[in-house]
Design brief:
The chain is α+β, with helices and mostly antiparallel strands and 126 residues long. The protein has one domain: Tetrahydropterin Synthase, Chain A. The protein is built from three helices and five strands; from the N terminus they run E-E-H-E-H-H-E-E.
């Protein structure tokens, strides 16, 4: 299995309103997020050029992220009802993009340089 990754950046605010009122993350605050898409394919499934997927084909994801998430309030951007934690953001991105990027195997989200959440489903839908 071969794996590629590409890193993307955006800035946004959120409120983790399911936390106790005394918790600092229960107040509105923002992060400079890092999102890493991981795509995988067996060697025999590489493109003729030898790629899992051409990195340039991820430009659509970058455009979507800029339009949908960058300088937005994640509570609104993700729709009501879902707490915009890094974990939920990773799942949400994966579920939105897995059909468009069938090689997508994981989404990693960082809110700070030392914290990461990774969503890697046990198996892909067919």
């Amino acid at each position: 299995m071969l794996t590629i990754t590409k890193e993307f950046h955006f800035s946004a605010s959120h409120v983790l309103d399911r936390l106790p009122a005394w918790h600092p993350c229960a107040r509105m605050h923002g992060h400079n997020y890092v999102v890493v898409l991981e795509l995988s394919a067996p060697r025999e499934a590489l493109t003729e050029a030898g790629f899992v997927r051409d990195y340039r084909e991820l430009d659509a994801f970058k455009q979507w992220m800029d339009d949908t998430l960058d300088h937005r309030h994640l509570n609104e951007a993700m729709g009501g009802g879902t707490s915009p934690s890094a974990e939920n953001l990773a799942v949400w991105i994966f579920e939105l993009w897995c059909d468009r990027l069938p090689e997508l195997t994981a989404v990693r989200v960082s809110e700070t340089p030392k914290t990461w959440a990774t969503y890697r489903p046990d198996h892909r839908r067919t």
